[in-house]
Every structure is written in C-alpha cells, then in structure tokens.
Amino acid sequence: MLRIRGTVGDLPVDLTIEMDPEDWTLLGNQLKGSAAEIPAVAVTGASKPKTQDDALWRNALALVESSGQVSGPALLEQLEGLAGSTAGAKRLLVRLRHSSLVQVQSGADAPLYCWAG
pTM to 2 decimals? Predict the structure, then answer.
C-alpha cells in the first residue's frame, strides 16, 4: 500500500494506492530501467519538475515572512496544517532552521523563527 498526502492548490489530498506484489515488481523494473537516464538529466542541468515539497517549502517560508516573527510551537502547528502530519512539519522546521532566509532566536519559552530574507 502506498499513501500520498498533501494538497493540490487549496484542496487536501489523501490518496491510498493498493498494489499487489506483481505491481511492485513491475514498478521496480520500471525504476531500474529509468535509473540509467537520471545521471544524463543531472549532467545536462535540466530543471527538475516542481514537486509538492517545493510548494510546501515556499508556503513554509511565506508563513515566516508574513509573520515576521513566530514562536516554534505556533509555527509547528501551522506547518502541520500545511504538511498534513507532525513528521512533515518537523522536517520543514529543521529546513527553516538551516535556511539563510530565517534566523532562529532564543525566546523565553520557545525558539523564535524570524524572517531575515
């Protein structure tokens, strides 16, 4: 079973795909066949298609930018809504922490994420 969660535009998406062992084998064979093409794409410098992760990242940055300054717990709650899970929200928090566009300051009770962009 494969589960895909996120958003398409403003609409939430929660898609479950059930696959038989034969389907997984076919998929694996398809991926093995296309693996040889991946280095060629990287060498040519072709841009990769925009993914849901790119949209989540832009939205996470926009949350901090529009707030100017937001506490870690409040930001985590907002990111959970965007990412659809606590784990996804925590990944975005880590990425924000290491971004040059965001400064993390020590607050009285929690870290403050401040827009530096």
Answer: 0.55
